Amino acid sequence: MRTINWPSEVKDVFFAKGAQELPQVSYTPIDPAPVLEAVREARRLIVPSSSIDLWLERQADGLERAARMLANVGTPAFFEYSRQLYGEPTTPLRYFPHTPLELSQSICDTIDQLIRIEMDIAPPEYHTAEKVAGDIERAVQKHFGESAPKIELVDKLSANALATASTIRIRRNARFTDRDASQLLNHEAYIHVATSLNGRAQTDLPILAAGHPGTTRTQEGLAVFAELISGSMELDRMRRLADRVFAIQMAVDGADFLEVYRYFLERVGDRDQAFENARRVFRGGVITGGAPFTKDVVYLFGLLGVGNAIRTFFASGRSDCLKLLFCGKLDFLDIPALCELYEMGLCKAPRYLPPWVSDPRYLLALLTYSTFMNKMDMEPLLIVAQKLLEAAPVVKL
Asked: How far apart are CA 64 and CA 82, in angstroms?
């Protein structure tokens, strides 16, 4: 991601000019030759006749396409490789006839129906970055011990918080709700930090320590699933993930940075957040439109894939596969190969697991309930409910 990052001055200049001109961004493309040569040599050793070989072939494909994508930053070719790696809003989901764009629209339609229901929800309480940093530091120290990432407060950051395996940086002037802080802990620390540390421990499979575009869908899907299963998710977060898909499609259809920025400004009402949201769409791509960065398609796509993978693990009596999801940076389609590698003693069991996996009682209850409910046809029940309530006045409690 360092190759496609924007310097902080880009935003300063954009607002200094009244947010009326396209940002001026330049990139330094990487030289893909060393990666392509290494992948070429590795492929010579792969004979695609087993699940392990097929897994290695997928790793090679992902690394090669990523290198070619970063060699073409700022050009339409960047988008072509991006859509191959991450998908795009109008590409049907694997094993499902629906597209991320349709999924996003369904989410927003459902949210619109829900918010019409008058519910007495108190406005969230906001906390300072200092308080959130202290809470997260205590939580990661308890969870990771001596391997806990450092928590740093910084003055400049493109987002409210950013995490690596060793550090979680939090912008000093950011404000967080209780759900924001919980999302940060469950998404960044319990998933991204954990899979990084577990991957680093794989001495025989060091590729599990390094995430690449081929693993992004599952990694982000796991992280969003963690928000849901931990009770950290809320409707606003779901809408934000859907809005990213809509914005990518706008850019694919030709919208430039200014148009997408104004779309987000109308949605969030905050110019800094609108800029950062639009930046996510155009980083590495073409500012004038037509060729965006499609990575943000994977959040909802990955959530659906991971959720269904976990459900099918349990439904097929293979709950053993759940913990393997956390042994490093991987795609859930890698599980058959990792099962074989574990039996061979080459893949180590993950040391760090999120709380909902270490103690899976709630997850098991939820999976049992969802499996039961998915076997029911809701249409007859909906008809009964509509007839039952058609004469009942709406009450305000």
From this structure: 12
Work out whether strand 167-171 and strand 150-154 pair parallel, antiparallel, or are unpaired.
Answer: parallel
Closest to 297 in 3D by CA, of 20, 21, 103, 41: 103
Alpha carbon distance 237, 244 (integer Å): 11
DSSP, collapsed to helix, strand or coil, labels residue 231 as coil
Beta-sheet strands, E only, within the chain: 126-128, 150-154, 161-163, 167-171, 175-177
The whole-angstrom separation of Cα 127 and Cα 177 is 6
b (16+ CB within 10 A) / e for 179-196: bbbbbbbbbbbbbbbbbb
| 182-231 per-position pLDDT tens digit | 999 999 999 999 999 999 999 999 999 988 899 999 999 999 999 999 99
pTM: 0.91
What are the C-alpha distances in Å from 123 to residues 234, 332, 397?
13, 38, 18
Q: Within the chain, what is the greatest distance between any pair of CA atoms?
A: 72
